[in-house]
Amino acid sequence: MGLFILRRLGIMILTALCLTFVVFWLTNLYPNLEKLAKSEGNQRMADTEVVSWLAERGYAQPLYVKYGEWLGIAPGFTFTNEEGKTTGRCIAPGQAAEDAPSYCGILQGDWGRSTALDDEVSSIIATKLGLTGYLMMWVLIVMVPSSLIIGVLAGMREGSRTDRSLSTLSIITTATPEYVSGVLLITFFASGVGWKIFKGSATKAMDEPSLENFTLPVITISLYGMGYIARMTRASMTEVMTAQYIRTARLKGLGFRTIVMKHALRNALIAPFTVIMLQIPWLLNGVVIVETLFNYKGFGWALVQAAGNNDIELLLGVSVVSVVVVLLTQLISDIGYVFLNPRIRIS
Description:
- The structure is a single chain.
- The chain has 347 residues and is mainly α.
- The chain folds into 2 domains: 31-121, no CATH class; 122-346, MetI-like fold.
- The protein has helices at 2-27, 30-40, 47-56, 63-71, 121-156, 161-175, 178-189, 211-241, 244-251, 256-268, 270-286, 288-293, 299-308, 312-340, 342-346; strands at residues 78-80, 86-88, 113-114, 119-120.
- The protein is elongated, with a radius of gyration of 26 Å.
């Protein structure tokens, strides 16, 4: 198991480097850098002025050099103007060049500064990630048990009325986009057209989450993911219920509930476990629509702001967190799958 985890960690590191390099390359394409120069400097900059602005700030360096500086494995760029004043990536405003560190990248904890939000990228990501993490926690608390119950009930008796009803419900929830279900929920439960049960605003939920201002975003996201997990659970449960050892248990005279709870359920949860773990990266970046719809300024909102404002440092920071979360959830999923499936553990 230790060797398995070490191999996975090695693959994770290589994958993270490759993915972050691709994102770094895309964000540092010249049109993006030109747009950054004009937004930070002057919209009427001439081409020569843009080139000079980029050169003074280190953006004209080779891509692999800039990537090394951003990671923190290469010394930070410095530039000395005609007046003898030295500026650079690692030199803070008002700081002497000799007092500045040589390396200042991701590995040193320096994530850069957001040009659009005028704040440290690490501070922005920590705040927004906390808001989205709280939303994700409640979505998982609602979505996972509900979807597993629906899937197990539907798969216990394939083709029954309960199976058809719950399967239809699962398909409807999965096929309904979040922006549709969110608008419908707001219309019927918050706008006064129907029953005005939830009077709060999701914006207030960022400071003081309550039942009134936090329920609709959680339900909107849960409904969309619930159907997919339920369908996977139902398919896995149906397959398990037709297995030979289930037939043997029935021939021994065991009760149906005992067969389901003690023999079928654990094996039926192997496939849904992987699907549930894959929902975490989706929740982290896929809640953009819901956060925008309910004006809940979380991690997805930060991603939209970074992309819309050409905020390179913030966009890179968000990308790093997204890559790490995806790889960690895959690692946890692989380890959990090994424990749930003895055949893989033995092999």
